[in-house]
């Protein structure tokens, strides 16, 4: 049966077709489909009215960083999904005059089929993010007096953002954070901390509170291994007294932060089985040729004339054989 495939952005779909995209996702994993922010796009491939593949694109930092985040990729047909991925990149590259860097986040780390599709589309692994469960310990050391943990509010965001964005490629988020994103995270109850040693900022953290643990979504301490061990020890003791009813922190660290990962393991952190990959692809702009340009360049080039001559020879040869 011949399929009638459509590759569209979900805003182009009527309401019932837009809602049907949810069928591709587990119940709690569906992307936002209604009342979408201007930078949020859900691209979908459909066979008539049936969704076959979907992926979410966030182009909030397209103008500032020439970057687009891709996430929540899912499909029922791998060939259709690969076509959707190529279509998305092709369409977006026709809308710009500069290269676009795509950062694709994949949480299904055990799906080798997805990995092969991404590689075939030109994506490369940028880094891997693992989660470490670090217990809190009420152990005080003399060196802890050199350390302080400072909560950063929106009015003091500038220094925090500068430090974070200088090291953003090492972090799970991979690209820089804007003022607007900082403000949005604050409204969503995200906490931002500066880690200070002898009153100097040498680290930052982005934290979310949960009922039984705290989630340190991003963490970077710019120091040598000895100071890093002191910093982790200080945080274990500090969080123990700050959060009386919470026993551990879930800290995300990437494969580009080997010192942090090693230090966390030395302090008793257990590695979660959940990990995610960030892939990267830089796509050049696709030129759009006008009708006038096509008319002026209608005369075939030398290489085109050679190809045409070879095709005629092959056609004549095959015609003689059939006689």
What attributes characterize this protein structure?
single chain, 323 residues, alpha+beta, twelve-stranded mixed β-sheet, 10 helices, 12 strands, disordered C terminus
Strand order of the largest sheet: 1-2-3-4-5-12-6-11-10-9-8-7
Q: Distance between termini?
A: 35 Å
What is the string of SSEs from the N terminus onward?
A: EHEEHEHEHEEHHEEEHEHEHH
Average of the residue pLDDT scores = 88
Please give the number of β-strands: 12
Instruction: Give the overall silhouette.
Output: elongated
Largest sheet: 12 strands, mixed
Strand content: 25-35%
Report helical residue fraction.
25-40%
- The secondary-structure class comes to alpha+beta
Low-confidence runs: 290-298, 311-323
Q: What is the alpha-carbon Rg in Å?
A: 26 Å
Give the SSE layout:
Blueprint: E1 5-9, H1 15-20, E2 40-47, E3 50-58, H2 62-65, E4 67-75, H3 78-93, E5 100-106, H4 112-120, E6 124-135, E7 147-152, H5 157-166, H6 179-187, E8 191-197, E9 200-209, E10 213-221, H7 225-242, E11 248-254, H8 258-266, E12 270-283, H9 291-296, H10 302-322
Parallel strand pairs: 4-5, 10-11
Antiparallel strand pairs: 1-2, 2-3, 3-4, 5-12, 6-11, 6-12, 7-8, 8-9, 9-10
Helix pairs in contact: 7-8
